[in-house]
């Protein structure tokens, strides 16, 4: 998992997703009290299902790590919109790898802010090795899911709130 994360981070950095250094220190100081990705997500009250899934998948420590990460975070309502039984099935221990694949499909290495995406269409490598299609030419869509709130900062990255759960390609 760590090797995949590092490889994806290198790929993202080489593709120009490394954050600009200007203003990073001021931004970090402004948000220093917020906590890591998991703490920030938990504090909103909108990601209880996501946090439970992250814990079931054994990814909590990773998302508390140094990062930086860009997380496209589905809300509780997005998880509730999955077909009946889907979430319960994914949370079973025997389906842990499938849950890991889905959750890591929502995470890109590096810190990509909305201003980095504005007006662009691009493919972004995820931690699980697949890519997300981002269209920020009219609002922001990630594989068709709407970004309903952008740029929720954490000490180790940024969260973009989405209205759907993203499913990785079947051929990965």
Automatic annotation (TrEMBL):
Signal peptide from the UniProt entry: 1-22
Annotated FAS1 domain residues: 34-166
GO cellular-component term (any): extracellular space
Gene3D superfamilies: FAS1 domain (2.30.180.10)
UniProt KW keywords: Signal
Pfam families linked: Fasciclin
Protein name as catalogued: Uncaracterized surface protein containing fasciclin (FAS1) repeats
Organism: Amphiplicatus metriothermophilus
């Amino acid at each position: 998992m760590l090797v995949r994360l590092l490889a994806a981070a290198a790929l993202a950095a080489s593709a120009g997703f490394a954050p600009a250094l200007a203003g990073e220190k001021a931004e970090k100081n402004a948000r220093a009290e917020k906590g890591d990705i998991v703490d920030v997500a938990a504090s909103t009250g909108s990601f209880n299902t996501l946090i439970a899934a992250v814990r079931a998948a054994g990814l909590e420590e990773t998302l508390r790590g140094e990062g930086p990460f860009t997380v496209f975070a589905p809300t509780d309502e997005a998880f509730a919109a999955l077909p009946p039984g889907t979430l319960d099935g994914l949370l079973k221990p025997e389906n842990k790898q499938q849950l890991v694949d889905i959750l890591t499909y929502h995470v890109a290495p590096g810190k990509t802010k909305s201003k980095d995406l504005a007006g662009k269409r691009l493919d972004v490598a995820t931690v699980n090795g697949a890519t997300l299609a981002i269209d920020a030419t009219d609002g922001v869509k990630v594989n068709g899911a709407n970004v309903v709130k952008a740029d929720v900062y954490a000490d180790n990255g940024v969260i973009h709130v989405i209205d759907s759960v993203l499913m990785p390609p079947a051929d990965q």
